[in-house]
Amino acid sequence: QQQVKQSPQSLIVQKGGISIINCAYENTAFDYFPWYQQFPGKGPALLIAIRPDVSEKKEGRFTISFNKSAKQFSLHIMDSQPGDSATYFCAASMRGGDYKLSFGAGTTVTVRA
Amino acid sequence: GAVVSQHPSRVICKSGTSVKIECRSLDFQATTMFWYRQFPKKSLMLMATSNEGSKATYEQGVEKDKFLINHASLTLSTLTVTSAHPEDSSFYICSAGTSGTPSTDTQYFGPGTRLTVL
Fold this sequence. Notes:
The structure holds 2 protein chains of 2 kinds. Helix content of chain A is 0%, strand content 52%. Chain A is built from no helices and 11 strands. In chain A, the strands form 2 sheets. In chain A, strands 2, 4, 5, 9, 10 and 11 form a 6-stranded mixed β-sheet that branches. In chain A, strands 1-3-8-7-6 form a 5-stranded antiparallel β-sheet, with no helix packed on it. Chain A is globular and about 45 Å long. Chain B has no helices and 11 strands. In chain B, the strands form 2 sheets. In chain B, strands 2, 4, 5, 6, 9, 10 and 11 form a 7-stranded mixed β-sheet that branches. A 4-stranded antiparallel β-sheet of chain B has the order 1-3-8-7, with no helix packed on it. The termini of chain B are far apart. Chains A and B meet through strand 5 of A and strand 5, strand 9 and strand 10 of B.
């Protein structure tokens, strides 16, 4: 059973637009929420991560919004570029859980020029 | 920093042979390494967690006698697929956990190994 649910499965956005990917979790013991970016044939690369003590974290064009009460978090990609076309995975882990990551199903983002 | 390498990047082998995949953390010491399997257009499936100097912990449904994991040092873990069969063909990815900045929870992933069993 998937502990982290991710949506949408895929999305298409125009260059310069905003891509939004949502994730939801059930286990309140999760306390670390990273996002990974993966290009075809490559390993995932850590993009940005957040802990539940903050509601938002921004790094360049990438922003994580975190809603602890709703048990939801999302990734916003501002000013989307063709080079952002990739699959994005949200994940969650907890201390005491051997730091194992529970991954979402992934979202394939296509940015059209 | 936080670079993880894997070797080989792709391997083709005959059914019944064994294949070893190496995972190295190049610029940090990884007390914990993880091995994942990924099917096309799917998410990552955790196979096992290995801590340096101790036996790996396998996820439910993963055959430990088929997927042998050794974590001999703080910078090297190996996955050996024994008696490989076509259904073992997949993309295998390792990750390493660092105790340094920015977080002890952070996992850094290798570039993956594409295994094709004929």
